[in-house]
Design goal:
The complex is a heterodimer of chains A (about 325) and B (about 290). Chain A is about 30% helix and about 30% strand. Chain A has about 325 residues and is of the alpha/beta class. Chain A folds into 2 domains: about 220 residues, P-loop containing nucleotide triphosphate hydrolases (Rossmann fold, 3-Layer(aba) Sandwich), CATH 3.40.50.300; about 70 residues, Alpha-Beta Plaits, CATH 3.30.70. The longest helix of chain B is centred in the N-terminal third of the chain and has 34 residues. The chains are: A alpha/beta (about 325), B mainly alpha (about 290). Chains A and B meet through α2, α3, α4 and α6 of A and α1 and α4 of B. The complex binds adenosine-5'-triphosphate and magnesium ion.
Chain lengths: ~325, ~290
């Protein structure tokens, strides 16, 4: 999905025809969670992972981290299998809804995590102090997690994923559960991490966040990757539709008739005037009509394909028959 | 977000990771073990069990008042030697079954296992933490019991000390068994299985004797005979560690017996731990 790099450096993260089928219940009934997902992320890039609820995002992320053993295909980190601790040493993972030992304080959680990475005591206490500041938890640093709110736990989760200064961040819904300030702070943090050359792989349901933070996206639907690529390629800049806003004078009978007669035009009345949406190819005809009728053209813009529309087209439009 | 922008999330000096080699491996095991100890130290359940045990020993003080003068020390001794291993075995079963399962159930493992730690290291760390914890609990119980024993004219003889030492090896074995079953199945079921191993293990020699006899179901019904043989073979013989009665009758628990029993216990412990790791490594954590 990404430009093939001339040198042999493996992608920081790679899924190849990943498949995972769970067995549930006494009769071991098969539940397919991931059917066929292939993707790759090159160093320094950021990839957004989208898909409706239950489409298999969390499951495929767990395969990447060795929490779940794939039924088929491969999951690799830095060219190594996910089961290799050396590969995981360079990854910071934020679980979907982060749970930690509720008898520990944030300081103790970060210290424990630092020990698992083999950090020296001095490094651990320095990192703990730095990160508690970054996620804004200095105040609560010495309180047990038992009484923490969802957003506070999310902040602990983000901090613990950064302890070892990893090259690759795998964050499962990093922006959920946060207040508006927190969302902005975490978005800023992600921009900053990207600027520092880290690779980012994260899932989200908020398309605006993905659009603002990612080079590329992968859209998942019922366990299948239905669209992936750079946003610039997926969201065609050569917009197919344009939108015009005309002044009140367009609300006369004759003007409305002329506008409705334009090819494939949708004309709607708004409190301030008339909105016309039509194929970009027909803009010339619109301009002629405006000149002929002496209308007041206030705005004319190309309607770009938004991520939302892409998502709806790819994920929802697949219809229920695809589930079979 | 108080730090300057250029340091956000990234340290001024990158931290040095120590992953490969035996030292970092032991470091991770120790980290998990320390956290396990801390968890127990902050859990009310643990203090509850400890408090109940202390009460039980205090009860033996009262009970011994009812005994004849020359029987008082004997009563405290046999009561303690029954109660201490029992409390230990219950703790070992509960902790071994609950702690591993709790990590999966509360999803705390999701944040830990993606770190550069092997699942085997995690299991070993949990076991080490529990082993130390049970040792501390045993020491605490003995420390409560000792004064009572002395008060009633008894003494903590070297033989008694070795008998208590053997208890510890039994507790470690029970912990490993509990962790093995908890890696295999759900907590209630694994608790039942562990208790089963405890009961069968304690009466292992009875079954062996019955198999050797020339009468009874174990001899006459072929299916029962096969079952009996399997049980004797796969369930560790826990009566090896139960030497309270012979000690009460003056047996000294010679060091060579102690060493052989300890070796027997540790071998079984390692075997069950290897099994637990084997099962746990194949498990999906969802
Ligand atoms: N342990 C499990 N046993 C059985 N089925 C499971 C298990 N875990 C996940 N699934 C199923 O796998 C599918 C994918 O779940 P997953 O959690 O990966 O979705 P998701 O894309 O992360 O959804 P969301 O956006 O809600 O987080 C779902 O149908 C879910 O029911
Ligand atoms: Mg999910």
């Amino acid at each position: 999905m990404v430009d093939p790099t001339p040198d042999a450096a493996p992608p920081v993260l790679e899924l190849q025809h990943l498949r995972k089928t769970f067995r549930v219940g006494f009769w071991a009934k098969k539940v397919p969670a991931v059917r066929d997902v292939s993707l790759a992320l090159q160093a320094g890039e950021s990839l957004g992972y989208l898909g409706p609820n239950g489409s298999g995002k969390t499951t495929s992320i767990k395969c990447l981290l060795g929490l779940v053993v794939p039924t088929g295909g491969h999951a690799r980190l830095f060219g190594r299998p996910a089961s290799d601790p050396h590969a995981r040493a360079r990854v910071g993972y934020l679980p979907e809804s982060p749970y930690f030992y509720d008898y520990l304080t944030p300081t103790e959680v970060l210290d424990y995590v630092g020990k698992l990475y083999g950090l020296a005591a001095a490094d651990r206490s320095r990192r703990t102090r730095e990160l508690l500041g970054v996620v804004g938890l200095d105040e609560a640093a010495r309180r047990p997690l038992r009484g923490f709110s969802k957003g506070m736990l999310q902040r602990v989760g983000i901090a613990q994923s950064l302890v070892a200064d990893p090259q690759l961040l795998i964050w499962d819904e990093p922006l959920s559960g946060l207040d508006p300030m927190g969302r902005k702070e975490v978005r800023d943090l992600m921009v900053e991490l990207r600027r520092q050359g880290k690779s980012l792989f994260f899932s989200s349901h908020v398309l605006g966040d993905i659009e603002a933070l990612c080079d590329a996206v992968c859209i998942l639907d019922r366990g299948v990757a239905v669209a992936q690529g750079h946003l610039s390629e997926l969201l065609r800049p050569d917009a197919l539709e344009s939108e015009a806003v005309l002044g009140m004078s367009a609300q006369t009978e004759a003007a409305m008739l002329a506008l409705r007669a334009l090819p494939e035009a949708t004309v709607t009345l708004t409190p301030t005037g008339v909105r016309v949406v039509l194929p970009t190819a027909a803009v010339a005809a619109l301009c002629r009509a405006v000149a002929d009728l002496g209308l007041d053209l206030r705005e004319l813009s190309a309607r770009r394909d938004s991520l939302e529309e892409l998502f709806l087209r790819k994920a929802v439009a697949r219809g229920p028959e695809a589930a079979a | 977000m108080t730090t300057p922008a250029q340091h956000k999330g990234t340290p001024a000096q990158p931290p040095v990771l120590h992953i490969a080699g035996i030292g970092p491996c032991l470091g991770r095991v120790a980290a998990v073990a320390a956290n396990t100890l801390r968890e127990a130290g902050r859990a009310r359940l643990f203090y509850g069990v400890l408090g109940a045990a202390v009460l039980l020993l205090a009860f033996s003080l009262v009970l011994s008042d009812l005994a004849l003068v020359d029987q008082k020390a004997r009563l405290v001794q046999s009561f303690g030697m029954a109660a201490i291993p029992l409390v230990g075995a219950v703790s070992a079963t509960l902790l071994g079954v609950v702690l591993l399962h709790k990590e999966i159930d509360k999803k705390t493992l999701y944040a830990i296992l993606p770190k550069p730690i092997r699942r085997s290291e995690f299991v070993l760390g949990k076991f080490t933490g529990l082993a130390v914890l049970l040792g501390l609990q045993l020491a605490a119980l003995v420390l409560c019991w000792w004064p009572v024993l002395v008060m009633r004219g008894g003494a903590l003889t070297p033989a008694l000390g070795r008998a208590i030492g053997l208890c510890l090896f039994e507790l470690w074995l029970v912990t490993a068994v509990a962790m093995f079953f908890s890696a295999l199945t759900r907590p209630v079921l694994s608790g039942v299985f562990t208790l089963g191993v405890l009961v069968v293990g304690r009466s292992n020699y009875v079954i062996a004797d019955l198999l050797g006899a020339n009468k009874g179901v174990f001899v006459e019904v072929p299916a029962m005979r096969a079952l009996g043989k399997v049980l004797v073979a796969v369930v560790p013989d826990l009566s090896t560690f139960a030497v309270a009665d012979p000690v009460l009758h003056g047996w000294s628990v010679p060091w060579d017996y102690f060493a052989a029993a300890a070796g027997y216990g540790l071998s079984w412990t390692v075997l069950f731990l290897v099994g637990a790791v084997f099962l746990f490594e194949r498990r999906d954590l969802t």
